[in-house]
């Protein structure tokens, strides 16, 4: 599979696997970058080829303005992703990435692309905004929330240069995630698998179970030990679950 020039701005492929039986597109969390999913890619290759979305405003896209509207981000990705979606393909999104994966899947299904499975991790089902406003807090308060959730090493965020580079994308992503709300319309026709940590302060089982209402196909809920970033410690179990699911 050749990635077009337009799609190459958005997609990172760490372990090319042209003979893979399936592909998995990963959508990072707020403030996250494509490199977060390098271990997933290594674990799943060569049976599953992992493609990871790189949002503007971070790593090798640092010079581009971040997108602070999840619907705009979904529109852009729905335009470029078809070029890399050899079927069968599944999506995996964590936290903000779960909402984004769902919105991109809706758009692609409207154009005739059906996913094998949508994996949504660490995120409540789409609904009305919760009134969260971390994106409106000052820099120290915003970073304190990031540290509380444990997605980034606290020592890294204490470095002044890294703080300066990370804050614009973090604030933009938090705004996109916190202002996102469900817009009624066709949901998805593929199965949804929701995953969460049993100590996640951002989502509980009842909220994650709501994803069942967003699909006309099957639904499964998987719970793991840990908090919002449970997948750091459970990566081997999660990639095995994904691999087994895509091998069916």
TrEMBL record:
One of its GO terms (biological process) is lipid biosynthetic process. InterPro entries: AB_hydrolase_fold (IPR029058), TEII (IPR012223), TesA-like (IPR020802), Thioesterase (IPR001031). One of its GO terms (molecular function) is hydrolase activity. Residues 25-246 form the Thioesterase TesA-like domain. The keyword Hydrolase applies. Pfam families: Thioesterase. It comes from the Bacteria. Keywords: Hydrolase. Belongs to the thioesterase family. This is Thioesterase. The lineage of its organism: Bacteria, Bacillati, Actinomycetota, Actinomycetes, Pseudonocardiales.
